[in-house]
Amino acid sequence: MIDKEKEKCLECGSKNVVRKGKSKTKFSVKQIYKCEDCGKRFVSDLRNKSYPIKIIMNSIVTYNLGNNLAETSKIIKKRFKVEVPEKTVYSWVKEFDKICSYYRTRDKAVKLFKPKDTVFIKIFRHLQLYKYRYHKAKVEFFVRNKERYLATLNTSNLPTSVSQHDCPTPIR
Fold first, then answer.
1. Taking a C-beta distance cutoff of 8 angstroms, is the pair 46, 53 a contact?
2. Which residues pair with residue 125 across a beta bridge?
3. Fewest Cβ atoms nearer than 10 Å: which of 72, 73, 157, 167?
């Protein structure tokens, strides 16, 4: 059950909202809410999107791993059994490029790594299985530009030298 406290009116910001039916889209059913203060009706999910957020985000991630639009569309169709046109994937990538910061460096990363080699995965077997992953392209860019990155840090609050006595004892 969705907590009423979490929902706010998109128009006036009031928390005084009630459920008022459901809206059926192409792939999902969305809850409709009505604000008791201003009378506006709204859907809490992404507006004007017929595809679920899970498919949208997976499409963007798959594209940003280095796959082209056709490959991305094919992978999403195989994974979710939903056909997403290439134009739609492209529109999502462009729409969310401000919040997906990796998009700006994608072109350089594609030249360095193939899509299947972009993320390194290693499974460790300790008391339980642990899947360790890191993004090779991001690490490569950081290593190449670490001097420029470190120069941007504010080091005025850091001590001039750090000895072993200054560091906490590791837990074993």
1. yes
2. 129
3. 157
Q: Which of 82, 89, 28, 40 is nearest to 60 (CA)?
A: 89
Residues 64-96 pLDDT 10s: 999 999 999 999 999 999 999 999 999 999 998
Identify any residues that bridge with 30 across adjacent strands, giving them in sequence order.
23
Give helix then strand counts, H and E, for the chain: 6, 5
Residue 28's φ and ψ, nearest 5 degrees, are: -155, 175
* Confidence category of residue 169, pLDDT binned at 50, 70, 90: very low
DSSP state of 81: S
Q: How many CB atoms lie within 10 A of CB 9?
A: 20
H-helix or E-strand spanning residue 146 = helix 146-151
**CB within 8 Å of 103: residues ≥ 6 apart:** 64, 93, 97
Radius of gyration of the chain (CA): 23
DSSP codes, 147-172:
HHHHHTS--TTS-S---GGGSPPPP-
End-to-end CA distance of the chain: 43
